[in-house]
């Protein structure tokens, strides 16, 4: 079931109508049932996979607390089951195909079996969420839960189930356990998030996605055309993924929950490090807390710390998909973060460049981030190598104009995102006009502005939405 469908609208209307008429325990049972219906709407067997993960982690958490002397074996059981299922469904064919290719390179021909099954949607997200619970219980930072319904709802909570944000037990599980009351203000803010998210998805992401798909469907685009397509994809994935997070947060607020912010205007980042503080925040912090820091983080000698950093990004890249381009993408960002940090320390550069140079700093970071999206978008290694060899000198007459046309088209559709981010940049830099306006948007005045904004966005969505509906990009991960 997808957010921008009549099925979901009817589903959510029924759920929320019944939900607020029930006591706390009834609410949780309803949400758990609704979450399984939501997740298994197209493929009911997906629910069985989730239930297996949930059961093992629920058991492992209790056993670690009841039998602390053997808590390592229970943590290992959780890791083996969760990562094992992720490995089978997501990476089995990748490894088999690579082993086959390696053997073929030395003259050995084999025909290993491949799995012809669908990847359970969202498995990467709820697997990492469940693992954070067992690791926290193992470290003594979280007590094991004894209520099976509450724990299962923590894993399956439908608003963020398919594409995040990845919630920690210390944040979401405690909200599941405590009673919730209707909050009209929270609900109003939720409507704003949902409408803004639908606008970003249906108007910006889907329209820009048509440009990106058209470029990447070509086997030999010109240099200018290719990079216009990369720019279009960079805007598409930002609008698309942040839209899902916004809708998830808005829907959750109607149910009395608060999900973490997953995007904080990443394209106004002033460095690659800052970008990863702003982009897919729930995943970035997950890898920081459960991979980078346990491996030693920056408490090690400089060379070892650099290797740890790059390794973390490599694993993060591989999390996104069973393809070498994602590993390359992770390596690109790891080297970029390490390199810019090293250069900044060597030259004693300030973290924030002063005055107008701030825009230069943002522009340079934006360009570097756009360059990385080529590795993410193109999954075919041969095409990727060909694209990297393209040069402006090989552009034929008229192709530069086509590239400019695609770039302007993508930039025009993305204009609301740019304006939104520039406003956020001005707020972060403390510009007086922005702070003055926002200081006066309180109470009824804020509610009126929100109502007008919702009406405008809803109208524009109906008028400007793409005629081609595209799936959320992160459904594939």
How many H/I helices?
A: 19
Portion of residues within helices: over 70%
Order of helices and strands: HHHHHHHHHHHHHHHHHHH
* Computed structural class: mainly alpha
The percent range for strand residues is: under 5%
> Over the alpha carbons, how many angstroms does the gyration radius reach?
23 Å
Distance between the termini: 16 Å
Sum up the overall morphology in one term.
Answer: globular
Number of strands: 0
Largest sheet: none
Mean pLDDT: 91
The residue ranges in which pLDDT falls below 50 over 5 or more consecutive positions are none
Q: How would you describe this structure to a colleague?
A:
The chain is mainly alpha-helical and 477 residues long. The protein has helices at 6-19, 24-39, 45-66, 71-105, 123-138, 148-156, 169-177, 184-216, 223-254, 272-278, 281-292, 302-320, 324-347, 357-377, 381-388, 399-413, 415-428, 432-440, 443-464. The longest helix has 35 residues, at 71-105. The model has no long low-confidence stretch (mean pLDDT 91).
